[in-house]
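I need you to check the entry underneath: sequence plus fold tokens. Let me know what the token row says about the fold.

>
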Amino acid sequence: MQERDTSVMSRQTSMPRAVIFLFATACGMSVANIYFAQPLLDQLSNEFNIDHSIIGVVITITQIFYGLGLLLLVPLGDLLNQRRLIIGQMLLSTTALVIVGTASLSVVLFAGMALVGLLAVVTQTLVAFAATIASPTERGRVVGFITSGIVIGILLARTFAGLLTDLGGWRSVYLVSAAVMLVMACLFLKVLPKVEREVKTLPYHQLIKSVFTLFKQEKTLRIRSVLAMLIFADFSILWTPLVLPLSAPPLALSHSAIGAFGLVGVAGALAAAQAGKLADRGYGQRTTGIALALLLISWLFINYLEQSLLALIVGIVLLDLAVQAVHVTNQAMILPLRTEARSRLTAGYMIFYSIGSASGSIASTLMYAHFGWGGVCFLGASISAMAILCWATTKKLTNY
């Protein structure tokens, strides 16, 4: 099976900045859709008469289906027309968001959230497609900027949801997001290039099986996926329980003030976009080592949360800078491994990201319940040390 068009892969040119920005924005909005519910649980509990002890299932359902989407949908980018796949998923995401925003029954809400999570993986199809249409000399920079959009979307989802809820209620969050996704789909219909490439005909079950085969064949994929699992565990260890000490005495900050810390994290995420340029120049391993050292140092500042909010801010910037720098470098190193399998490489890598995020969330809340904020920081620093050890023992096994 072959996709034909006037554009030829051997004549790749620089991606226009406007197109790169559109990719980053779409990725940020798509991934934010699965985080909107976190600050809205109280409203959802009251609206649908769901007990507070089980309302968290809304988050669980969304995350489970996001993980399923990584495995079941993202690999389709290596089998189907990526342009049509991206636009189709965005239109379906629009429908899913409308279902959530107009739901009158809890079962409809849960079904809509499941679809939102499943279809949010369009972000990874976008990253793989951007790596395909970008020239080799700028691939790291492009991927870096676009993945910064993803991290920013995660960080600002709570702020966006809180503001819209105050203005128009919780339903407005999903209906406005649906409108934005529809606009994005229309824009992509105009600007996404049709790419000529040869794609082998492959049964769907073999396509999914090949994701696991890639892990056996590609050493770099295995190493970088483990690093992704560790750094995103650290990311969740900070952000999941952060609201607890900030909202409790002696700080007792408002939810609006707590949400503003997401804006602080954006600074680190934007700065880390430059890591892609370093990877393009062959400095991927060095960048990783420096970033992981900053990740460990960040917990020294974060530990002083109750004594100094300035120290917390410094720690957040360092942590988000480090996590994003390693994430960008990881993708810059794995996407060139198999040009015909970029979507499957992305899917396999992001599964480890999901495992790390989920594990970090669970572990951090348990640590906070039993050992307070000091226990959370000890856990985060320990994971950071494990990541440094992993990098140090494997850095000579890859070419970067």
Observations:
- The first helix runs from residue 17 to 32.
- The two ends are 33 Å apart (CA to CA).
